[in-house]
Amino acid sequence: MTTLTLTLVLVAVAAAAWYVQQQRRPGAGASAAAEARRLRTPLIRLADLLGIQTAAGQRARRFAAGAIGEKDTARLLRTLARQGWVILHDLQLPTGKANVDHLAIAPSGRVFLIDSKRWTSSHDVHLRGTRLFHGNLDVDDRLDGLRHETRTVARLLKCPVHAVAAMHQAPVRHDGLSVGNIRIVPAGALCARLRATSRHADHFSTQAEIAARATRLLHPYGPSR
């Protein structure tokens, strides 16, 4: 097989894979997966097949990892859904491109906004002063999106919203950290943490009222986005 023929075959394979993935349906992690697919154009897929590193390819891998983390968190949250919690995934904010990974509304009415993080397990997550580090890397700015989403959702729902980062793979020092108003917990401890802090409401709306408001104002990610 000539070099030109091999290249054409690889382009065809990359293009076919890209087309198939474009047809996937929404769900937990849908927006992150869609961004990964958008970045993985046939040319980027060809570069990946040839072992050529590109900025778009690296970003696509980060989004793909995020989508996997969101799907893993969604599986964990099924336990709470069976216990009467309202669980919503991958919600669009009314303005901008930000999205909410997961919204959990306890039977008491307490609201949690959960952000899935899937960072490499080769380094732990810890605090230095008031800033968050992953190994020796300052990653505090990676919480800025969660801060913005929490403020926005609290304003829309007209009630307090508690921010939680569910950490997959990377160990969390002390089995849980607080960075300002954000609680970072190992993903495996997420449901226990939510149950332990949800027994009492911190506002006057019921679960049904908050859920109705959320479904009216925060729409699930969809192909039209």
What is this entry, summarized?
This protein is an alpha+beta fold and 225 residues long. The protein has seven helices and ten strands. It is 44% helix and 23% strand.
The helix/strand class is alpha+beta
Order of helices and strands: HHHHEEEEEEHEEEHHE
In total, the number of strands is 10
Overall structural domain count: 1
Order of neighbouring strands in the sheet with most strands: 8-9-7-3-2-1-10
Mean pLDDT reading: 85
| N/C terminus separation | 42 Å
Radius of gyration: 19 Å
- Helical run tally: 7
Query: What about the largest sheet?
Result: 7 strands, mixed
User: What is the helical fraction, as a range of percent?
Assistant: 40-55%
- What portion of the residues fall into strands of 2 or more residues? 15-25%
Anisotropy-based shape: globular
Low-confidence stretches: 6-25
Spell out the blueprint of helices and strands.
Blueprint: H1 3-22, H2 30-39, H3 42-49, H4 55-82, E1 86-92, E2 99-105, E3 111-119, E4 125-128, E5 131-134, E6 137-138, H5 144-157, E7 161-169, E8 177-179, E9 182-186, H6 190-196, H7 207-217, E10 219-220
Parallel strand pairs: 3-7, 7-9
Antiparallel strand pairs: 1-2, 1-10, 2-3, 4-5, 5-6, 8-9
